[in-house]
């Protein structure tokens, strides 16, 4: 600098006195610019005297002159940049004016640059939005920096950091300015770095170097360059069958690295089968929701393909495996494979009556089934095979106990709660002929009054059979049996259907008092079963026989007379009328009455015993020949009677009797006229017979009309016997075999006219204690049958008949 100053002094001294100085800018106030006095070669006094002053024109006064010291001083801070901008060199031109003499000196002060300005940017930050899809090589213009300094102190270079994605490119332009650009050399990825900060630095070349910076913010814009991605490649879920619609099974989720709408994921079921999307759906949140019905029995699992799609159409897929869990929602199904509606009651134990198939579609315990039947019946159920049951009889059956069973089979599974179902089978037990008919009573006894109408129903036997229908149809059969050598069928018959026992013939008590036989009841089964019962028929007596006088014997030819001595006392037993009645009981209870007598005052007849006794002393006036008519009457209802004539001779000697009786014995005459009398008798008998028949028929018809119901009653007639006359049955004391009814009507009790066999030469045994009824008489039959009997007697008995006509007729 000093050399410069010297150089200027030389030039001034020679020409105009011109001095140049060079000072850096920004010197402090008062700094010395140069020794003007010395350089101009002027004395300081001259400066004073010359009133030296500086003239600057209109420019600011940066420099002042110190007259005392003769130097130039910095008056104001000098900034080269504001003074000269980019002009160079930059100088201040001053004039020093002196008076006395007037002198003018030119002074040039050059201002040199110092590095006092930093490179600067207009904005201290810059923002860019760049798509991540921007291709490499894309250029982005940056702001230039400005440095007011010049020369080396001016702007020198730029730098950009970091350089990961962008590089700086500086291009010199024609005007000398530089174009600053940043170039993408590595693609951007929003998903990695969404915001990038860079720093652009501009440096100058000064010493020390100065720099300015600008911040660059790059926002990477999203591009749909990422597909959604499912979190799991397979999702698993389980759901109970029969779950409610709307149940959420699981949630799937897919992520998309993109932003905004590019990152919005929607889910869908992509399975080809439409049916699946009717069952499951997936909502925007990825919730898998049940919308249809699922049934474990139809499908145990599902596989659903799902898809996640973003709005740009990029997608990912995954699958969901859904296991359906079983719920006990099926009750067992019972099916009868085969069954019998009817079985025989004699079917043996363990007869199979039905085969059942049981099916429960549920699984595990929900499908395990147990079956049983109602326990009040004789059947059991057996598990034959898995799922197959057989219903068998447990014991032998009896239709007579129960003819029908309702078998309820109940099957329940093991689920919780258990489900069950049941079916009722109706089984009919068909009949087997295993019951024999049983009579209502162990034996029967019935009564019938003798002289019944043949065909009269006596009573009814009845047997019951517990079986059914044909097996219970009982028919009654009379068992072959003979009574006194006569087959029972000629006595009675049995109606096969009704069991009514009919009399085949009219019974005669005097011939047979009772008999018994067996009736068999047989059912209609095959083979038939039967049982039998004893029936006893008791024949009841009817007063159908008049008393028969045994003594005195009534003969046509001879006269028998009882002798009464004239000296006989009162009560003398003249004779005894002996009569029998073949009936029994009351019907055979005889009483004796004196009907007619020659002298009523002389004799009486014992009412009970038939003894004829005198009731007063016999005197001489009494006729020798006495004739008494004694009526023997039984006690039947109506009673029957017989008359007997007793001749009594009141005499002391037999010749007396003879003389008296010859006049009324007409033996010879009787014999002569026998034929005549017989013819007459026959005529009378015929007449009487016809009369009897006519009358009886009339009466019968009348009575029958009146009391039809009574006589048709089957009730046995129980006769009444007075105590004393009990038991004439079965003693056999009076057997009278040959009685022939002349008049036979529907009710033989009313039959009054009979031919009877004459009681004759019988042996009379008088029992002293007898009351007149206990008479033991050897029957005439026994006489007849007796081979030793005299022929005459037998002839007599065989051919003698007497006619008794009841007076009540
Ligand atoms: C600018 O600086 C870079 C490095 O920062 C360098 O490579 C380059 O050569 C410099 N340019 C000049 C003209 O100095
Ligand atoms: C069986 O069921 C039928 C019809 O329900 C009924 O009429 C009958 O009485 C029942 N039989 C038995 C033995 O319970
Ligand atoms: C009658 O029944 C009895 C058993 O009550 C039996 O012993 C007898 O043999 C049967 N008689 C006939 C002829 O069937």
Structure characterization notes:
Helices cover 13% and strands 39% of the residues. The radius of gyration is 86 Å and the shape is rod-shaped. A hairpin with a 6-residue loop joins strand 30 and strand 31. With 809 residues, it is mainly β. The relative contact order is 0.05. The protein folds into 6 domains: 5-112, Immunoglobulin-like (Sandwich), CATH 2.60.40; 117-223, Sandwich (Immunoglobulin-like), CATH 2.60.40.60; 224-326, Immunoglobulin-like; 333-340 and 353-418, Immunoglobulin-like, CATH 2.60.40; 438-540, Immunoglobulin-like (Sandwich), CATH 2.60.40.60; 696-808, no CATH class. The termini are far apart. Residues 1-15, 664-668 and 709-809 have low confidence and may be disordered. The strands form 18 sheets. The chain has a 4-stranded mixed beta sheet. It has a 4-stranded mixed beta sheet with strand order 8-14-13-10, with no helix packed on it.
Structural class per helix/strand content? mainly beta
Proportion in helices: 10-25%
Q: List the ligand species.
A: 2-acetamido-2-deoxy-beta-D-glucopyranose
Which term fits the overall shape?
rod-shaped
Q: How many structural domains in the coordinates?
A: 6
Going across the major beta sheet, what is the strand order? 1-7-6-3
Q: Unreliable stretches, pLDDT < 50, 5 or more residues?
A: 1-15, 664-668, 709-809
What's the tally of helices? 11
Strand content: 35-45%
Number of E strands = 56
Compute the CA-based radius of gyration: 86 Å
Please state the average pLDDT score: 82
**Alpha-carbon distance between the two ends:** 217 Å
Main β-sheet description: 4 strands, mixed
Instruction: Indicate the multimeric state.
Output: single chain
Pfam family, one: Cadherin_C_2
Signal peptide: 1-17
Organism: Labrus bergylta
Domain Cadherin: 17-121, 122-230, 231-334, 335-439, 440-549, 564-661
């Amino acid at each position: 600098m000093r050399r410069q100053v010297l150089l200027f002094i030389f030039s001034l001294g020679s020409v105009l006195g011109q001095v140049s100085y060079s000072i850096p800018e920004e010197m402090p106030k008062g700094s010395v610019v140069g020794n003007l006095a010395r350089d101009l070669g002027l004395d300081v006094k001259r400066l004073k005297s010359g009133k030296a002053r500086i003239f600057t024109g209109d420019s600011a006064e940066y420099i002042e002159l110190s007259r005392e010291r003769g130097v130039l001083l910095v008056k104001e801070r000098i900034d080269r940049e504001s003074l000269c901008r980019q002009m160079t060199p930059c100088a201040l031109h001053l004039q020093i004016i002196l008076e006395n003499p007037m002198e003018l000196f030119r002074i040039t002060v050059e201002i040199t640059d110092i590095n006092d300005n930093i490179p600067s940017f207009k904005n201290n930050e810059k923002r860019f939005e760049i798509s991540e899809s921007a291709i490499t090589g894309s250029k982005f213009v940056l702001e230039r920096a400005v440095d007011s300094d010049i020369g080396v102190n001016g702007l020198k270079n730029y730098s950009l950091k970091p350089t990961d994605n962008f590089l700086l490119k500086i291009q010199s332009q024609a005007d000398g300015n530089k174009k600053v650009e940043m170039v993408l050399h590595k693609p951007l990825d929003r998903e990695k770095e969404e915001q990038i900060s860079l720093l652009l630095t501009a440096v100058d070349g000064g010493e020390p170097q100065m720099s300015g910076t600008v911040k660059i913010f790059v926002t990477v814009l999203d591009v749909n360059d990422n597909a959604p991605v499912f979190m799991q490649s397979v999702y698993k879920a389980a759901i109970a069958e029969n779950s409610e619609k709307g149940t959420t099974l699981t949630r799937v989720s897919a992520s998309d690295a993109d932003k905004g709408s590019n990152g919005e994921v929607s889910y869908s079921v992509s399975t080809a089968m439409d049916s699946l999307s009717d069952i499951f759906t997936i909502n925007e949140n990825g919730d898998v929701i049940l919308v249809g019905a699922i049934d474990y029995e139809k499908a145990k699992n599902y596989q659903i393909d799902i898809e996640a799609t973003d709005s740009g159409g990029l997608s990912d897929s995954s699958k969901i495996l859904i296991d359906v869990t079983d719920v006990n929602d099926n009750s067992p199904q019972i099916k009868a494979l085969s069954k019998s509606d009817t079985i025989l009651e004699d079917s043996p134990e363990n007869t199979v009556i039905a085969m059942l198939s049981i099916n429960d579609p549920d699984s595990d315990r929900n499908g395990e089934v147990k079956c049983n039947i109602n326990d009040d019946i004789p059947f059991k159920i057996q598990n034959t095979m898995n799922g197959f049951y057989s219903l068998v009889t447990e014991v032998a059956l009896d239709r007579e106990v129960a003819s029908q069973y309702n078998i309820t089979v109940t099957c329940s599974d093991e689920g919780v709660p258990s489900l069950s179902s049941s079916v009722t089978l109706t089984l009919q037990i068909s009949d087997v002929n295993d019951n024999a008919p049983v009579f209502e009573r162990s034996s029967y006894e019935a009564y019938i009054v003798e002289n019944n109408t043949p065909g009269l129903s006596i009573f009814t036997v009845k047997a019951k059979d517990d079986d059914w229908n044909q097996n219970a149809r009982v028919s009654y059969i009379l068992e072959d049996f003979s009574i006194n050598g006569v087959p029972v069928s000629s006595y009675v018959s049995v109606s096969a259907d009704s069991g009514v026992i009919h009399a085949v013939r009219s019974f005669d008590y005097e011939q047979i008092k009772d008999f018994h036989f067996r009736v068999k009841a047989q059912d209609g089964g095959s083979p038939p079963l039967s049982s039998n019962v004893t029936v006893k028929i008791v024949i009841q007596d009817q007063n159908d026989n008049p008393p028969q006088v045994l003594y005195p014997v009534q003969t046509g030819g001879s006269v028998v007379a009882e002798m009464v001595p004239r000296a006989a006392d009162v009560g003398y037993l003249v004779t005894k009328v002996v009569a029998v009645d073949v009936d029994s009981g009351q019907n055979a209870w005889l009483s004796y009455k004196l009907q007619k007598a020659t002298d009523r005052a002389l004799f009486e007849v014992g009412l009970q015993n038939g003894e004829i006794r005198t009731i007063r002393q016999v005197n001489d006036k009494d006729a020798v020949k006495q004739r008494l008519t004694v009526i023997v009457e039984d006690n039947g209802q109506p009673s029957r009677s017989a008359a007997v004539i007793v001749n009594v001779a009141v005499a002391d000697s037999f010749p007396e009797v003879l003389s008296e009786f010859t006049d009324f014995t007409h033996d010879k005459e009787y014999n002569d006229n026998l034929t005549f009398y017989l013819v007459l008798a026959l005529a009378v008998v015929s007449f009487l017979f016809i009369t009897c028949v006519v009358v009886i028929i009339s009466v019968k018809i009348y009575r029958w009309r009146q009391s039809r119901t009574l006589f048709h009653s089957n009730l046995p007639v129980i006769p009444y016997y007075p105590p004393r006359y009990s038991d004439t049955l079965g003693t056999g004391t009076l057997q009278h075999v040959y009685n022939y009814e002349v008049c036979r009507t529907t009710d033989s009790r009313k039959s009054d006219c009979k031919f009877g066999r004459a009681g004759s030469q019988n042996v009379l045994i008088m029992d002293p204690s007898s009351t007149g009824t206990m008479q033991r008489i050897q029957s005439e039959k026994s006489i007849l049958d007796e081979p030793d009997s005299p022929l005459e007697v037998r002839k007599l008995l065989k051919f003698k008949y007497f006619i008794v006509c009841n007076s009540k007729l």
